[in-house]
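Journal club prep — side note

Before the paper discussion, L.F. wants everyone to see what a predicted structure for a comparable chain looks like in token form. Sequence:
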Amino acid sequence: MTSLEGRTALVTGGGSGIGRACALRLAAAGAHVVVADMNPETAAAVAAETGGTAVAVDLSDPDFPRAWADASTGVRTDISADIVVNNAGFQHVAPIEEFPPEIFTKIMKVMVEAPFLIARAVLPGMYERGWGRFVNISSVHGLRASPYKSAYVTAKHALEGLSKVIALEGASHGVTSNCVNPAYVRTPLVENQIAAQAQTHGIGQDEVVERIMLAPAAIKRLVEPDEVAELVAYLCGPQGSFITGASIPLDGGWSAH
């Protein structure tokens, strides 16, 4: 459980859901976790749970690297990590002709530009140390498209491409980069979507999950955050050292179609 002793892991969107699960799991493996989240309270709470550091940051601001600071002290620091888990993101659902351009742009900034800027900041240190791990929380929507999710699908496909470039550039320096591709994960965000769709369609929440969300999947259940975190930890540990440039589905058979 201490295979990451002495390593620093940066988890974006680490204040809840998948990010929180990853932060807890990597801390259990011995890493010092930097919990980056736009919500200072949740970032601080997870940092307290893990014995890590909280950073309150808005990744939609392209100047966020200049504002990077320890949330408890306010002291500005440079972005540095041995492990990066690019998890932060959000969703907006609308037909393309009704999709607000400003939301499309914001999704690109948070889910594509921010991972690029973080990679740009941390790669020199990883190269110097001869070791690094990027785990990009993509989605089944990084492998497959769905209607009404133009920005999210575009962003996840872009993240897949960035991950592969990091893998190719970093290989000779001991750096790996991979994507984890879950289907719907049992997070507060998804739970709210389930409740909203149940109200909209006039059906029960279980029916929403089975008939709408999980219709393309062979296994009819949500993914648990801990399942995602376990795969992340595997990719960061010694067993995952030869896996790079890969996209690993946790989608219950969705992408088998």
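L.F.'s comment for the group: Residues 185-222 form one domain. Keep this in mind when we get to the figures.
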